[in-house]
Amino acid sequence: MPSPARRLLPLAAVLVLLAGARAQQTWTFDETTTGQDIHWTSSTTVNPAAPAYDTSYHLDLVEVKIHYLFLTLGPFDITDQIPPEVQTGGGSFDGPAPLTLFGGQVAYPMPPDPPSVAADIAIGLNASGAGSFDASNVVLGNITLDVAPFGTITAQIVSVHIQGSLSIEATQWQDLGGALAGSLGLPVLTGDGPLTALSPLSLGVANAQPNAGLTLIAGFFDAELPFKGGTLVPSPDIIVLGLNTGPTGSLTLGTTWPAGVPAGFHVYVQGWISDAAGPKGFAATNGVSGTAP
């Protein structure tokens, strides 16, 4: 039997069901080791119980000091020797905390050469919602550098200085996947807003077929039903017809979050787009789930 909640509603009724409570923190760390472990923790936190997190980190500076002929020389910048996949990273992660953005051994130069610098690195969010940067099992070996006025020398590293940044945004919604490719690839659905009474929120569709019909489907369950050659992520409890992606293949809509929404309320939303390149004449965005805090 169809759900009694299944009906066609005005656009605003669907938008008030979708929001992402976001609380972004960007931290910087500036740490030096002479061989001891590093354990840095941010002074502020994000919500450790959030359903999801958008994250990024970057190692901005890695430099060393060396010991040569009874002298301490440097610092010398070796940032460009750090592998790019280690230097920058992040992405979307399901919550709750803790989570690890990067974890593994970092060594310069790469094995089988003896390491000049090596450590087990972990970058992430701890169980309390604080950002963390840890370096353990630190190895400081020899490095060959061109140092004026000595020329090319091989010397013992005595310290490593690391500067970087970590950005984590706790969100009340999760990307559930389930997109169906169309003319431009996979359309994307995003939502934003603090999910507090009468606060602004927005819904955006991008990378869709231009000037195409768009239908938003919202539900109270994660249905994952076969549909039009793809996956209908939400249960089809609320359907909004008559939208259009416009000449850029995108659409941004806004409204306000209503008062009185209970904590823990869940909603699931997805967009379906008319697109002849889809398997049955349709493409679909990813599904997203929103959870009231």
Topology of this protein?
Elements: E1 7-8, H1 11-15, E2 23-33, E3 38-45, E4 52-68, E5 71-77, H2 84-87, E6 88-94, E7 99-108, E8 117-125, E9 130-140, E10 142-147, E11 151-171, E12 173-177, E13 188-192, E14 200-206, E15 213-219, E16 222-227, E17 230-234, E18 238-244, E19 251-256, E20 266-274, E21 282-284, E22 287-291
Parallel strand pairs: 1-18
Antiparallel strand pairs: 2-11, 3-9, 4-5, 4-6, 4-11, 7-8, 8-9, 10-11, 12-22, 13-14, 14-19, 15-18, 15-20, 16-17, 20-21, 20-22
How would you describe this protein?
With 293 residues, the protein is mostly beta strands. It folds into 2 domains: 7-19 and 172-291, S-adenosyl-L-methionine-dependent methyltransferases (Single Sheet); 23-171, no CATH class. The chain is 3% helix and 59% strand. The chain has 2 helices and 22 strands. It has helices spanning 11-15, 84-87; strands at residues 7-8, 23-33, 38-45, 52-68, 71-77, 88-94, 99-108, 117-125, 130-140, 142-147, 151-171, 173-177, 188-192, 200-206, 213-219, 222-227, 230-234, 238-244, 251-256, 266-274, 282-284, 287-291. Strands 1, 12, 15, 18, 20, 21 and 22 form a 7-stranded mixed sheet that branches. Strands 2, 4, 5, 6, 10 and 11 form a 6-stranded antiparallel sheet that branches. A 4-stranded antiparallel sheet has the order 3-9-8-7, with no helix packed on it. The longest helix is centred in the N-terminal third of the chain and has 5 residues, at 11-15. The protein starts with 6 loop residues before the first strand and ends with a strand. Residues 1-22 have low confidence and may be disordered.
